[in-house]
Design goal:
Length: 132
């Protein structure tokens, strides 16, 4: 009949039983686990900031495209003046300059500030108005 093995062994030299882990082994394991969890938390914070920045850029680009489309669809582009407005945290500015003939170069800049850092998206196009 085979001898049954158990988790408990006897240290033959010292005559004591070894069961489980020592306190230092548990403390080292907890330290390694805490360092790993801290790294995961740091990555999560970076991901959240990146998502926020991506959302801000998307919103600013949408606002700039919307203004470009409105100006391109103006029936009399020569009569449209430079302007600006504020939409939430975004400052939207547009300028029109003569290109050739009735065509105009339209530049729309949407800027915003997050935690003291300034950001901007600029789009430029040439149009004659009336959707062209």
């Amino acid at each position: 009949m085979a001898k049954k093995r158990t988790c408990m062994t006897v240290d033959k030299e010292k005559g004591r039983r070894n069961k489980g882990f020592t306190l230092i082994e548990v403390m080292i394991a907890l330290f390694i686990l805490s360092v790993g969890l801290l790294a995961v938390a740091t990555m999560q914070i970076s991901a959240i900031r990146g998502n926020r920045m991506g959302n801000d850029i998307t919103q600013a680009t949408f606002l700039a495209e919307d203004t470009l489309e409105q100006l391109k669809n103006s029936s009399n582009i020569a009569a449209v003046a430079n302007g600006n407005d504020v939409v939430g945290i975004y400052n939207r500015n547009w300028t029109l300059t003569a290109a050739s003939g009735v065509a105009r170069t339209v530049t729309v800049t949407v800027s915003w500030s997050i935690m003291g850092t300034n950001h901007a998206v600029t789009l430029t196009t040439i149009t004659r108005g009336d959707g062209a």
